[in-house]
Amino acid sequence: MEQMTEYERKRLENVQRNQQMLAALRVHDTAEHLRSVSKKPKLETKGYKPPKRGKEPEPSVLRRSLRTRGISPESIGDLGSDSPPASSPAFPRTPRSARNGPLSLAETYVPYGEEASYDHYFNRLRELRDHAPLADLIRGKTDMGSEGRALVGPKFSPGNLKLEAKDIARLAPNRIFSVHILPCRERVIVASGDKEGHFSLWDADCEEGNGLHMYLPHSSPVSGIATAPFSAEKVFSCSYDGFVRCMDIEKEVFDMLYTNNRDNLLSAICCAPHGYQSVYFAEGYGEIKVLDLRVGGVSNSYELHEKRIYTIDFHPYNPHLVCTSSTDCTASIWDVRNMRKRQTKSIATVRHNKAVLSAYFSPSGNYLATTSYDDSVGVSNGLDSWNTTFIYHYNPPRRWISSFRAIWGWDDQYLFIGNMDKALDAICTSTKITTTLHSPLITAIPTRFAKHPFVHGVLAGANAGGRVYLWRKH
User: Fold this and answer.
1) How does pLDDT run across 207-262, given as a tens digit for each residue?
2) Which residues contact 49 (CB under 8 A, 6 or more apart)?
3) Helix, coil or strand: residue 405
4) 304 and 313 Cβ atoms separated by less than 8 Å
5) What's the CA gap between 30 and 22, in Å, rounded?
6) For the whole prediction, is pTM greater than 0.85?
7) Minimum mean pLDDT among 75-79, 187-191, 294-298: which range?
8) Among 14, 272, 381, 466, which residue is least crowded by beta carbons within 10 Å?
9) How far is the C-alpha of 379 from the C-alpha of 225, rounded, in Å?
10) CB 245 within 8 A of CB 257
11) Which SS3 state, helix, strand or coil, does residue 124 take?
12) Which tens digits make up the pLDDT trace of 50-67?
């Protein structure tokens, strides 16, 4: 064995001294403990689970001569790009075409997970009329306001909203574009539409199975979901594929109410407050059409904006006032009695520096909340003397997530909107202070929200992974 040099001997002594120092400080034990703590347990949520795909075998390449293919050598220059080479086998892909006419729920049903039985689920859906506030209004059990709407509930602090693991479910395989809570009494049933046209329903209070059922009535992103204020039996949806469909629970069918043969995408939908006999939806660049369900077709069409309309919302107490938000950097309030085919004059207009992503009336109707890509949330009050306050909120445009849209809570005090830090922001309209609600259960940025219209303290948020989070008041 060769004798160590002086340098190697000093180096070895330094290494041994450092190891003894680390052992005395118990650095290795501390590092091992930190590694064990930093490992988060995988959260198992109910809902859609994509099937595992095995490794596809590489296709064998078959080389065939021109003689066996029946091609003369002289015609080799005549082979155009329309003829694929023999060494590049084609893999046919079945396109999802948008079909005209009604679609039964059975043919659009997409089975997955450990949901309740099909018959049991539809029996539950048929019982929705017993949970709708309209049923209690007929029986005289519900206290309604003078304008025919439920009275606004008591105020509460956003800190009372809590998120639990049982209130998380994956409703769709792709990014959710729209989320809506059905107007059911004492029940929480969430409807969502995703990027590929899936329409999902989640009975969060279901006791059998996970209460999840998914359908495929559209072939493009579902841009909007709406229901009549007091009816959960019919759920309306519009899509980029140019279709307006109605999920009729009683008939067990997705009725086709309108189609433009995919000429223009449909970007928003809303039911008239006086009932579901009229449905308003946005088409193409700045156009709103009125669908009259009594005649089964479009009764009116209005060109209100220069560019695409993102949202449509009616005043909670005045059925003649409707607000819209648009890519043309404006949000406007209109009187449906004065609407014309072209050049309709708005009652009031809120202007932002960039596209306005949403515009919603407050529960009392005294305020209007707008969200824009200019990193602001606008709060406007007063129809006669219009005054707008802009509150800073980071709303960056992102390709892989849906845009933020601030919605009102159950009073005029708070607005709820997503946060880029995978959290929920509650903006106080009086103090302009933002309260952020974090939770380790949130794995992606929640972007689209919906409140329960009659159960105060229930808020649903959806993300780009197809998951829906349900905050409840505790």
Assistant:
1) 777 788 899 999 999 999 999 877 778 899 999 999 999 998 888 899 999 998 77
2) 112, 113, 170
3) coil
4) no
5) 11
6) no
7) 75-79
8) 14
9) 24
10) yes
11) helix
12) 666 666 555 555 566 666
